């Protein structure tokens, strides 16, 4: 599992974490406060502050560097001022300890026990009816297994897999493809195995032929049911006429 951990809830912990303000000229300033946790060792925690002015990164605080670095003329001036301010230096050290280092175990325990069940879809690839796609979306953690079956037997030929791709919100997606043999009408299914599932889930594919057959069967059943009601109504009508 990727060991990048970002404290997304810093705004809830410190009133000064997200400083978002506007002056009389309509200029905006805001900061992103981040904790980078490469391991469970609190000493390895990196504390970052990205300072923006009108969507432009002007300077950054990096605990590994030990101070601020300016990226624009105004950022260079402000960074030098902050680095010379003993109170700011102490404040950043305390923030790293109180907000980041003391939260390492909580963050790791939370992210390692979190589980999100994948959303699975099974369909033919657009513009290519001879290839099936089994997609697992928005799942967590990363590890997942997708397996194709034909008539109850695992399929390995004609199968390709994509990499497990991050969505950018800690969830992932994965895709696998199966090339169909022309003319064969096998029962195809995709099995999904993931830690969020108590047991593997199997998703069956229905071809257009199967859909057509289902519609025909449904139509015949509806006609037969209608005929039964019609006959019942006629019999009831004749019996009532005889009673008079």
Automatic annotation (TrEMBL):
Keyword Ubl conjugation: no
Keyword Cell cycle: no
Transmembrane segments: 215-237
Residues covered by the Ig-like domain: 118-203
Subcellular location: Membrane
GO terms for cellular component: MHC class II protein complex
Keywords: Disulfide bond, Glycoprotein, Membrane, Signal, Transmembrane, Transmembrane helix
Cross-referenced PROSITE patterns: IG_LIKE
Protein name: Nonclassical MHC class II antigen beta chain
